[in-house]
C-alpha cells in the first residue's frame, strides 16, 4: 500500500458523510493528488441510480469511484443483503479493495454506511473492523445541534476501545443561522470526544454547482493539516 487511506464514518445516517467525502476529495484534487472514493456497501439505491461514491465524484471532480456491493433496501448493509438474497460485504474485502486502490492513488477515502458499528455481515463485521485491518485513521462526521454530543462521544469511545485513531470531527451541515446548541457544540464536541473539530461544511453545499463546490471546499477545510487528513 502506497497511498493514504482515510475512513469517513458518521454518528448516524444522514449526517453528511458523502458531502464531507466529496469536500475531502476536492481538496486533495486541488493539491494535485490522485483520489479514490470507496463505498463498501451502498444501500437504498436502485441499480442504475448514482450512489454515494458517484455523488462524491460529481461534486469533487475526477476521482476513481468504486462500490463493492449495492442493495436496494434502505437498511443496514447486513440486513439489506439478507433481504435481497445477496452476499454481504465483509471487512476483509473492504480492506483489500482499499489497499488495491491505494497502490494507484495518493488518497483513498472509504465512506461507511450509517454509523461506525453498523453491521456489514451476519458475523457482525463493521467499518471499524475494516479500519483496524487497514490501521487507518478515522474522521467522524457529526450533526451540529442538540443531541449530537452523546452520539459523537459514543462513537469516539468505540474508536478508542478498538485502538483506532480518530483524526477529528467534521460537522456535515453547518446552518447559516446556528442556534445556541450548535454554537455551544463548537466547544463541547472536542471536549466530550477528545478529538479536534476539523471543519464545518455549510448546509446546502451539495446543492452547489460542482465547479463552485470544488472552488470552495479547500476553504471549508482550511484548518486541516496539509498531510494526514486528505490534504
Automatic annotation (TrEMBL):
Annotated residues that bind ATP are located at 14-19, 52, 111-114, 172-173
The gene name reads bioD
In terms of superkingdom, the source organism counts as: Bacteria
Question: Which family does the UniProt entry place this protein in?
Answer: Belongs to the dethiobiotin synthetase family.
Question: Does the keyword field hold Flavoprotein?
Answer: no
Substrates-to-products reaction catalysed:
(7R,8S)-7,8-diammoniononanoate + CO2 + ATP = (4R,5S)-dethiobiotin + ADP + phosphate + 3 H(+)
Note the InterPro entries from the entry.
DTB_synth_BioD, P-loop_NTPase
Role according to the record: Catalyzes a mechanistically unusual reaction, the ATP-dependent insertion of CO2 between the N7 and N8 nitrogen atoms of 7,8-diaminopelargonic acid (DAPA, also called 7,8-diammoniononanoate) to form a ureido ring.
Q: What EC number(s) would the UniProt record show?
A: 6.3.3.3
Specify the pathway.
Cofactor biosynthesis; biotin biosynthesis; biotin from 7,8-diaminononanoate: step 1/2
- Please report the organism this UniProt entry assigns to the protein: Streptomyces cheonanensis
Entry protein name: ATP-dependent dethiobiotin synthetase BioD
SUBUNIT field:
Homodimer.
Q: Which residues does the annotation say bind Mg(2+)?
A: 18, 52, 111
Amino acid at each position: 500500500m502506497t497511498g493514504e487511506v482515510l475512513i469517513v464514518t458518521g454518528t448516524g445516517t444522514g449526517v453528511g458523510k458523502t458531502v464531507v467525502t466529496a469536500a475531502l476529495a476536492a481538496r486533495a484534487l486541488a493539491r494535485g493528488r490522485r483520489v479514490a472514493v470507496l463505498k463498501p456497501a451502498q444501500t437504498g439505491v436502485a441499480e442504475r441510480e448514482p450512489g454515494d461514491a458517484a455523488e462524491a465524484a460529481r461534486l469533487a471532480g475526477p476521482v476513481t469511484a468504486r462500490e463493492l456491493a449495492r442493495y436496494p433496501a434502505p437498511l443496514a448493509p447486513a440486513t439489506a443483503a439478507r433481504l435481497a438474497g445477496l452476499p454481504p460485504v465483509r471487512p476483509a474485502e473492504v480492506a483489500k479493495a482499499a489497499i488495491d486502490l491505494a497502490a494507484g492513488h495518493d488518497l483513498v477515502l472509504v465512506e461507511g454506511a450509517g454509523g461506525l458499528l453498523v453491521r456489514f455481515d451476519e458475523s457482525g463485521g463493521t467499518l471499524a473492523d475494516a479500519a483496524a485491518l487497514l490501521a487507518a485513521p478515522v474522521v467522524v462526521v457529526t450533526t451540529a445541534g442538540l443531541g449530537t454530543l452523546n452520539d459523537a462521544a459514543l462513537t469516539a469511545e468505540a474508536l478508542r476501545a478498538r485502538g483506532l485513531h480518530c483524526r477529528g470531527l467534521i460537522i456535515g451541515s453547518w446552518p447559516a443561522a446556528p442556534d445556541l446548541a450548535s454554537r455551544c457544540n463548537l466547544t463541547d464536541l472536542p471536549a466530550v470526544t477528545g478529538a479536534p473539530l476539523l471543519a464545518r461544511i455549510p448546509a446546502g453545499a451539495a446543492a452547489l454547482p460542482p465547479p463552485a463546490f470544488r472552488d470552495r471546499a479547500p476553504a471549508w477545510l482550511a484548518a486541516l493539516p496539509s498531510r494526514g487528513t486528505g490534504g
